[in-house]
User: Fold this.
Amino acid sequence: MIRAMVVSALVALMGVPSMAQVPQVPLFAFASPDAAAAWQTVNDGVMGGVSDGRFRITERQTLEFYGTLSLENNGGFASVRSRPRTLGLQTGDTLVARVRGDGREYQLNLYASGRMMAFSYRAPVKTRAGEWIDVAVGLDRFEATSFGRVLPGAGPVDPRSVTSIGFLLAEKTPGPFALEVAWINVLRESGR
Assistant:
């Protein structure tokens, strides 16, 4: 009951129609034995850094993204993302993720096919240490980025081109981190 109220409040604050009017379409859940096969980590080692980001599927049927963020060797990011596939997103969709974090600010990332290297659309996700929260982010709230920098004029995300979704930690505070994800759904207006 309380979780539903939190989502409804978030949805109302973000200008999204009420939950009663908008069905949730499951995008990712972590109950199947092969759920881990659909995910991968990408850390700053691709640029010489030494951050250690990992993930596992827990006995609670959640995805746990954890590790240690390091700023050594010009590093400073760790990420987990789904392997590319057609996600079926549509204009006007809102992504909703149930997460439990450590109080850090993560980025919810969308990866589009056919874009330049290190390109993603990002939206901030501020967690509360040890608390489950439902985060709702409309596709129109994502900003285009490359190598962590906002790309003005890149235009909005084309929902049809999104092939992967993930979480990134790049807040430049070294040390351990942990983010647990129960599920990722899509809020979609009725009739679409």
